[in-house]
Design a protein that fits this description.
InterPro entries: SASA, SGNH_hydro_sf, SIAE. One of its GO terms (molecular function) is sialate O-acetylesterase activity. Keywords: Hydrolase, Signal. By secondary structure, the chain is an alpha/beta fold. The protein has 3 domains: about 100 residues, Sandwich (Immunoglobulin-like), CATH 2.60.40.10; about 260 residues, SGNH hydrolase (Rossmann fold, 3-Layer(aba) Sandwich), CATH 3.40.50; about 100 residues. The strands form 4 sheets. Strands 1, 3, 4, 6, 7, 8, 9, 10, 11, 12 and 13 form an 11-stranded mixed beta sheet that branches. The chain is globular.
């Protein structure tokens, strides 16, 4: 039934696009949109086949032109102004009928992609609240020029060219339905920079990274079977299906001109191609950048959650940390400190404000020139062992660690590969290194240590951070399977 409906809908779309005598635009290009500032931005749609489409914009006397193909499709680049809160107008005319977009703002446009922790709205899911909801809604009255557009989450075996969506202001009436992570990211950018920010939400809960790879990428880089029946059989649930979510939910935004992408996904890959997740994620970024250009890609490491026995979730986080080095122009937010102990079995932790704001700190530092903002979590650098004591050196600590005593989350193992809880504290190592701050790790149960782990479990909360209060990224010094 679904397949039949899709064929009929696709056919109707083709007829509409080719037979009309008036410019038609995708829903994403509509009243209230935010257009990427200071660039040559794409506008696209359908017009009378082989007609010339002329674009007029309220901010310039210059005209922009494109020729529609035999199928009526066209795409045109328009030079855009600097960001401002002045409402703009764009008109596209093929000679037989014009389409006008009103109340347009020039600013920066970011895509918010991923699975349910990106999709989770400010009002939360049932049984999954977002912290301080009422305060967040009331504060939305202070937003200016912050807008979002939610792409409906749909599946398709072929890439869709349009989606039934509309732009909304992030105000008190609308913010409840907006991605919480995306909203807090956009709010921080908008208020810090005093410019309009547009957020395009293209996400679906439960999806795997393979759900967003297109057919060409899947064929080239994976062994996934792509016929309809195999896609269905190889997934326990529809949200895990390969290919179809990217075709249905992301393809409609692929022509957009954007500033960057934020991404929160990974839970769906715990136990599914965990060990090559970084590679597959890097290929997804390459795929998207083939359309958007070399835009920034900032992503969130999955939060602590009790997935059951084993270290598959820890391995997935390890892969995400590796992806930072594998993907140029990328960075990652660590969330190890953003889960309460009572959320052990809560896949959607409530502290979304800090997640979005940490993503914004990265963007403000890397893309907007605020190098004085601390945006990176500390990472493991190296280990030295002396007798029964391990000494751990970190990098990206911004000149200091957040606590001297009572450090939690470390474990030590000997040659038997059995890990035991360890005590950890600051250690000022003698020598010529002006930055000689190390962490001393010792366990009374391990006399000859060979390996150290920090929060390398499905659910383990640490409390060590850097000078900026950002949490240490979970790590291990071994490569053992368990």
């Amino acid at each position: 039934m679904y397949k039949r409906f899709l064929i009929i809908a696709t056919a109707l779309l083709a007829v509409s696009a080719s037979s009309q005598a008036k410019v038609r635009l995708p829903h994403l290009l509509s009243d209230g949109m935010v257009i990427q500032q200071n660039t040559n931005a794409n506008l696209w749609g359908w017009a009378k086949p082989k007609s010339e489409v002329t674009v007029s914009a309220s901010w310039t006397a210059e005209k922009f032109h494109a020729t529609a193909g035999k199928d009526g499709k066209f795409i045109v680049k328009v030079s855009t102004p600097a960001a401002s809160f002045e409402p703009l107008t764009i008109t596209l005319d093929d000679g037989d009928g014009a389409a006008t977009i009103s109340n347009v703002l020039a600013g920066d446009v970011w895509i918010c992609a991923g699975q349910s922790n990106m999709e989770m709205p400010v009002k939360g899911f049932n049984g999954c609240p977002v912290k301080e909801y009422n305060n967040v809604v009331a504060d939305a009255a202070n937003n200016r020029g912050l807008r979002y557009c939610k792409i409906p989450s749909v599946m398709s075996m072929k890439p869709l060219a349009d989606a039934n969506c509309q732009w909304r202001n992030s105000d008190m009436r609308n913010v409840s339905d907006e991605s919480a992570t995306g909203y807090f990211f956009g709010r921080m950018l908008s208020r810090s920079l005093n410019i309009p920010i547009g957020l395009i939400e293209a996400n679906k809960g439960g999806t795997r990274v393979e759900s967003w790879l297109n057919e060409a990428s899947l064929k080239k880089y994976t062994d996934e079977k792509l016929d309809t029946m195999s896609i269905v059989r190889n997934s326990r649930y529809d949200y895990e299906r390969t290919l179809v979510w990217g075709n249905g939910t992301f393809a409609p935004v692929i022509n957009s001109t954007i500033k960057g992408i934020i991404f929160y996904q990974g839970c769906g890959n715990v136990g599914y191609h965990t060990t090559d997740y970084a590679f597959r994620l890097s290929k997804l970024v390459e795929q998207w950048r083939s359309s958007f250009g070399d835009v920034p890609f900032y992503f969130v490491q999955i939060a602590p959650f009790d997935y059951g026995p084993g270290i598959e979730a820890a391995k997935l986080r390890e892969q995400q940390a590796k992806a930072m080095d594998l993907i140029p122009n990328s960075d990652m937010v660590c969330t190890n400190d953003l889960v309460y102990p009572y959320e052990r079995h809560q896949i959607h932790p409530c502290q979304k404000r800090q997640v979005g704001e940490r993503l914004a700190f990265i963007a403000l530092n890397h893309n907007y020139g605020f190098s004085n903002l601390y945006c990176d979590s500390p990472e493991f650098d190296k280990m030295e062992i002396s007798g029964d004591t391990c000494f751990i050196k970190l990098k990206k600590d911004y000149g200091g660690l957040s606590r001297y005593d009572g450090i939690e989350g470390f474990e030590v193992a000997g040659a038997d590969k059995v890990f035991h809880p360890a005590e950890a504290c600051h250690y000022w190592k003698q020598g010529n290194d002006p930055h000689n701050e190390w962490i001393q790790v010792i366990s009374k149960d391990v006399k000859s240590p060979v390996a150290v782990r920090y929060c390398f479990k499905s659910f383990q909360l640490g409390n060590l951070g850097n000078q900026g209060g950002l949490p240490l990224i979970p790590f291990r010094t071994d490569t053992w399977d368990k």
